[in-house]
Amino acid sequence: MYHSKISGLGYYVPENVVTNDDLSKIMDTNDEWIQERTGIKERRHVIRGEDTTTSMGVKAAEIAIQRANVSKEDIDFVIFATLSPDYYFPGPGVLVQRDLGLKTVGALDVRNQCSGFVYAISIADQYIKTGMYKNILVIGSEVHSTGLDMTDRGRGVSVIFGDGAGAAVLSREEDVTKGILSTHLHSEGQHAEELALIAPGMGKRWITDVIADNDPSDESYYPYMNGQFVFKNAVVRFSEVINEGLQANNLEVSDINLLVPHQANLRISQFIQQKFKLTDDQVYNNIMNYGNTTAASIPIALTEAWEKGKIKSGDLVVLAAFGSGFTWGSVIIRW
Fold first, then answer.
1. What predicted TM-score, i.e. pTM, was given to this entire model?
2. Which of 3, 114, 265, 289 is catalytic?
3. Domains along the chain with CATH numbers
């Protein structure tokens, strides 16, 4: 039995910075209102025709591969987490395989939204533990800006989200005291519609309906979020799944060197920090600079934390996420 370790990290965000003041020029909002409710000061939006979900994932992946000290020929498998693929199908996993010039390795797409990167890491970990693969490329990438309702009607959701990508290379680790110690995944589909994009789809709102209606006022074409309900569930599930991971490894909260939560809302992260009595040095947040980048948020934050020297060999690093589905999960890592 092997363990897997994160051998390389990288991220990419578009150059186009969109501040709260910028948004106040196109909808009825302001910097104070946004920061008070979310902690967000600015986010990145793609410039149409320049960046896509796949192209950003490729740029992040190239950095991660280089830092892992492996070649593209060493990558055995690709896992791509996103809610915003370039195409309805095929998914971006195969596009990354093509654009990076990888061998004809398998490519898997994960559609677990805010928990997508945690789910993808868990899958990669199992493949490596069983000996099937040695180096797996895991990507989380999102383009939200081209699908948001940028009017007063959509301001409660649209001010939250940003674009970007993060990537990690998971590699075989023979020292089973290091690397990913455990992963923990959950879902509760009874709340699926509390945070969702209903149309277009193949269910109640078919793609053909969207084409036929061509009605920009139809709110089902934009993301919906029951904010207070999501917040209440998030703080409970975050706490549960972090504790689950610690208990599975006979660890205590005091053993955590760094918690990297999904960057959904700074108030959620602060609530969890206070509940677990963690210091500012034990929690890494960057939502103020990038907004909520869904599946990309954890790998972007993890990469930044590593680049800033906040993660050292032997540290206990905890990743935790909660989002649409509802889905949630945690990853316990001995760096």
1. 0.94
2. 114
3. 3-176 (3.40.47.10), 180-334 (3.40.47.10)
